[in-house]
Specification:
Blueprint lengths: L7 H4 L3 E5 L13 H15 L15 H12 L5 H11 E8 L5 E7 L1 E5 L8 E4 L5 E3 L15 E5 L2 E3 L4 H8 L6 E5 L2 H10 L1 E5 L5 E9 L7 H7 L10 H10 L1 H8 L6 E5 L20 E3 L10 E6 L11 E9 L9 E8 L1 H8 L2 E3 L1 E7 L6
Parallel strand pairs: 3-16, 4-10, 13-15
Antiparallel strand pairs: 1-2, 2-18, 3-17, 4-9, 5-9, 6-7, 7-8, 10-11, 11-12, 13-16, 14-15, 14-18
């Protein structure tokens, strides 16, 4: 498979963006637009200073979205009403229509785990820094959209070569290089921190640090939940994060073998300022309940997207999930025009909500208004 490949099925989808009035967005008037605006500001601060060259296979912020970001930074938005007025003045909702699979929403979160800076006591599972010979074959914001091929590789004297797989790394491929960043106690916790892409680590002295994604070995991501469903160990409706963790932990040898079916392996770095929250694509700080991981083959990072999922009620909303999200992240499993991953925040409760989220959903993409041509 070519480097940075995109499946022909996704590349050939017939996707259109049809303008609709804001009145077509059920629940729009009752949303917390100020929370959405504050999340959009986090994108705006990055978009207005970033150089985003289009690749031809993925979408990046265009001049209109960057102009909307500049306006957001310049305007005074004191309350929800003003935030609602901002979005309605500068954007037009577009219904996403396509001939692909039904829209699907899942969730992710930031785990909070005990760990140590040194290998000691129960802490024997290494979390690695980015190796110096790791090179990107695609931009990080493209790694989800182009995840069918290698996205990262190993630089050698003879050129580039595939990096070690998860199994090879766990068998010692990186040992002795001083790349250990943190040590964890549980291999299942370590695996799912890789899947989530970030973590808060409680050290033995009581200090908490935040670590975040800093590259991967480049191999395509494999959902081990899907592996177990296909093998008949789970019915699809019974697969949750909690159920999967329990199954993996019940037999360490069996669990390790299944986790190694996912050849992808993530590297981390420590954040100097842990107060901003975990970082998404383009190092945009994520916002609980407002950040959305998307497929950048269809949606540019920074785009506001109104998500409607009537059967999803994570916060006991009887009318279902309906809120304005901001496209701020990517993921190797997030593929398609209405495929989204909702960021639920940090800790066990966020993990419970994220792990139980697998619901149909619709996207209404807010595209910037274009100036009238005279």
């Amino acid at each position: 498979m070519p480097l940075g490949a995109r499946t022909s099925e996704l590349a050939k989808l017939d996707v259109t963006f049809e303008p609709v009035p804001f009145s077509a967005l059920l629940g729009w008037d009752s949303d917390d637009h100020l929370a959405a605006f504050r999340a959009f500001l986090r994108s705006a601060r990055v978009l207005t200073r970033a150089t985003l060259a289009p690749s031809g296979q993925t979408r990046t912020a265009d001049a209109a979205l960057i102009a909307a970001a500049h306006r957001a930074l310049a305007e005074s938005i004191p309350d929800a009403a003003a935030a609602k007025a901002y979005f309605e003045a500068h954007f037009v909702p577009h219904r996403v229509t396509h001939n692909g699979a039904e829209g699907l929403l899942t969730g992710y979160y930031e785990p909070v785990l005990a760990g140590s800076r040194v290998e000691e006591g129960p802490f024997r599972i290494p979390v690695y820094r980015r190796p110096p010979d790791l090179v990107n074959l695609v931009r990080e914001e493209e790694r989800g959209a182009l995840a069918d091929g290698l996205t990262h590789a190993r630089k050698t004297a003879d050129g580039i070569a595939p990096y070690a797989t998860r199994a090879e790394i766990e068998d010692g491929a990186l040992a002795g290089q001083g790349l250990e960043l943190i040590w964890l106690a549980d291999p299942v916790d370590a695996f799912f921190m890789h899947v989530q892409g970030s973590g808060r680590i409680r050290l033995p002295d009581g200090k908490t640090i935040r670590i975040t994604y800093d590259g991967k070995n480049g191999h395509p991501y494999t959902s081990i939940g899907r592996v177990l469903i296909d093998a008949g160990h789970f019915a699809p409706e019974a697969m949750t994060l909690a159920a999967l963790k329990t199954w993996l932990a019940a037999d360490a040898t069996r669990g390790r073998k299944v986790m190694q079916e996912n050849r992808s392996f993530v590297f981390f770095r420590e954040l100097g300022n842990e107060d901003d929250g975990p970082l998404g694509a383009l190092e945009i700080p994520l916002s609980e309940g407002r950040s959305l991981a998307v497929d950048t083959g269809f949606h540019a990072i920074g785009t506001p997207i109104y998500v409607s999922a009537p059967t999803l009620t994570p916060w006991d909303d009887a009318q279902g999930f309906a809120r304005l999200m901001i496209a701020q992240d990517v993921g190797s499993a997030i593929r398609g025009p209405e495929r989204g991953d909702l960021y639920f925040g940090s800790g066990d409760e966020a993990g419970r909500l994220a792990g139980g989220t697998k619901h149909p959903g619709r996207f209404f993409v807010l595209l910037p208004r274009r100036p009238a041509v005279s």
